[in-house]
Amino acid sequence: MRLITVSGPPSSGKTSVIGKTIEALEKKAIELAVIKFDCLSTADELIYEKKGIKTKLGLSGSLCPDHYFVNNIDACFHWGLKENVDILITESAGLCNRCSPHIKGILSVCVIDNLSGCHTPKKIGPMLKFADIVVITKGDIVSQAEREVFAYNVKMVNPKAKILHINGITGQGAAELGRLFLSANDYQNLDDKKLRFTMPAALCSYCLGETMIGKDYHIGNVKNMKL
Question: Is the pTM of this model over 0.85?
Answer without folding.
Answer: yes
